[in-house]
Amino acid sequence: MSRPVSPAPAAAAEAVAAARVEPVAPAAPTSPFAPAYFRDQTIPVVADAPLHLGPLPYNAPKWLPTARDRSSIKAFTLHAHLTLELASLAAFLARPRECVFLHDLALDRLRAAVGPFFPEGTQIRAFGSSVSPVASVSSDLDVGILPPGFPHLKFDGKGARKATELLRPLLPAIKALAKHGTIEPVLRHGVKVPIVKYVDRVTNLEVDLSIQWEGFTAVDLVDAAAATYGANLTHVVLTLKALLSLHSLNVARHGGVNGFCTLSLVVAILHRLDAQGIPVRASSCDPTTTPGLVFLTVLHFLGFVLDPARVAIDAAYGGMLVDRTHAACNRYADHAWLVSSIRAQDPPENVGRCLHQYSNLRDLAQFVFLRIVQAMEFPRVEALLTAVFDVPDVYRRAYGTARRVYEGLLERDAEDQSAPRKVKEESVAHKYRADAAEIAATVVRKAKEKEEAEKLAAKERAEAKRARRAAVKEAATRARADANVKVDEEEVEDMVHEHVHVDDLVQDDEEVPVGDDEDVAEGLAAVMQQLVLVESVEAPGAAASSAAAAPQASSGRGRRRKPANSTPGPAAAAIKDASAKPPKPRKAKPARIAAPAEQGDAAAPAARPVNDGDVSASAAPAKKTRPPRPKSKKKPAKEQQAAEESGSAAPPVQSVVV
């Protein structure tokens, strides 16, 4: 029996190749930019540009792995060697136990101090790099407050004002927690995110307090990304942050790259590599080589591929490369670099908007990439990162300060010095939490006392204001009353001039005797005394003074001009109504009786007969009139003139005084 003939090796290879199914790359999600994208490209690890090596920039110090790290390096590939160094460096840069304890203590103190100012259910949590897997020893403490009822507080106009209203009452409590002169409230009008910055008095940590909900969402996204990519994300981000800090490119307000932008950039590149089929997930990658590959990929992308004038990175949607010239990116035209946040928003948030030193960042990425590649070419290389990297001085100072503060707290405030370290930490934390709670109670009590004092002061001010108004009202009432009295007097005077004149006493066809006749003067004085009734009608108490001044009240028969805003008083109105009554008819005048003239005497005017009606009228109550002025004497009659010419004197006129 013959054996079966095996197929040729070439034919077997072709059959296997035909039966193989190539994995399909996942479809790219849709970005809110929706512009025309660049052609997807494979980012090479080896530089595609000439290598121009130069001296080390900024005289950077060296960093050497420990002897244990050097003895564990057995691989000879570039990626494997670099992966081991990244792991060693990340372990050195990670926050030690002392820093974690101080961060937790500062957060507990802040919660105890500001918690009583908010209702139950308010979230006071840390966010940012201090609670992320990529936290470094120099990371500050970012704390967000989220009261119930504000799940999505927009920081635009009304939302920023509301956040300012929530933070302003906390300043007294924060001043008690902070070191003297370190509190810096950024609550001015127009700021996008109101924030309060201070340095904690006990832990010596920088704390940033704000009203947040976006920061809490970002923490969850960072934790999810770290769980997905593992060391490929955490080791690379820690090394990049230290590298940027070493060259002063990590401060956003100075035109550098902040930590969240660095994290978003690395996540975007990992998304791109994953979409291209390169195993970078923690569950499918080679942990001995992949972190080194990702680190070199990021350096190459920043140094040789990225053109920020034309290319934007969309970290929230698979790390797409976006055309910046598209109209959808016009809102970011003033930003030198466009890197969207890993937190999907509409419109996308540009976390790279503060970068203004991209040329320095690009030169640094090119130099580090080329130095690492060149160092691998030398035999018996001990470390690849020693040529370009060392632990920044800020990291060393932060670690030294944290260690001194930590040991001082345990030695000074721990109740039992012989207890284990964990027990000492709990004792110190309990003490300072109680201290912060007492601070909060004191601030709340003072705030209530101040509020009560302000209410009392406001009440006193209101009472004083009411008293002033009452005084002003009373003065105005008195002034109006005085004005009414004056107006009444003037009204009475005007009405007297209008209705009662001397003509009512002396008829037009009668003549006033010539000469200084005492009887006539006495009769006129008696009539004037009876006509003074102004004060007796309006003000009986002032009748005596007004009667003395009444004969001199007017200097003529002309009417006085009334004030423009005068209103007649009750007395004047009564007199006006009385004067409006029809006058009584006058009785017929009796015929003149000529007196017998003695011989030698000239004819004189006849004496006026006494009328009983006149006597009764004069005896009746006098009208409220103004005393008349004596009427100008008339010229003597022709007969009297003739008598005077003849030299005869007229007999005296007998006048009856009523």
From TrEMBL:
Residues 623-636 have a biased composition (Basic residues). Signal peptide: none annotated. This is Poly(A) RNA polymerase mitochondrial-like central palm domain-containing protein. Keywords: Coiled coil. PANTHER family: INACTIVE NON-CANONICAL POLY(A) RNA POLYMERASE PROTEIN TRF4-2-RELATED, POLY(A) RNA POLYMERASE. Residues 541-556, 568-581, 591-609, 639-650 have a biased composition (Low complexity). GO terms for cellular component: nucleolus; TRAMP complex. GO terms for molecular function: mRNA binding; poly(A) RNA polymerase activity. Residues 541-658 are annotated as: Disordered. The keyword Coiled coil applies. GO terms for biological process: negative regulation of macromolecule metabolic process; polyadenylation-dependent ncRNA catabolic process; RNA 3'-end processing. It comes from Allomyces macrogynus (strain ATCC 38327) (Allomyces javanicus var. macrogynus).
